[in-house]
Design brief:
mainly alpha
């Protein structure tokens, strides 16, 4: 190797070593500062947990127990789910259907009885 390359290599190694030492020193000072802090003297820095979640109030018919599940079957629900469309009497009373009417191309012809 030439003297110029050796000199350049040595200069770069010294620079890299100085950067490494500076980084380690900064890390050490930061860790020492964190360790020196007393949490009692800095109460505003303590994290506060959220209060426990409150459950929703139980409905009046909460004494019903859920239906038993059967292996391989559908999941039972208690009470039974409401239909998406209210009956004709409820619609006359002003009840709105939960779903919009199906488009005409999605409506199937009535099933013929045998």
């Amino acid at each position: 190797m030439t003297d110029n390359r050796k000199r350049t290599l040595r200069r770069e190694l010294v620079f890299a070593s100085a950067m490494l030492v500076a980084g380690l020193a900064m890390s050490g000072f930061s860790l020492a500062e964190i360790a020196a802090q007393n949490p009692i003297s800095h109460p505003q820095q303590l994290a506060q947990g959220t209060p426990p979640l409150q459950g929703t109030p139980a409905p009046a018919d909460s004494n019903k127990t859920p239906a038993e599940s059967k292996p391989g079957g559908e999941r039972p629900t208690t009470p039974a789910p409401e239909p998406a469309r209210p009956d004709a009497k409820a619609q006359q009373g002003g009840a709105q259907p939960a779903l919009p009417p199906a488009p005409a191309e999605k409506t199937a012809p009535p099933i013929k009885e045998k």
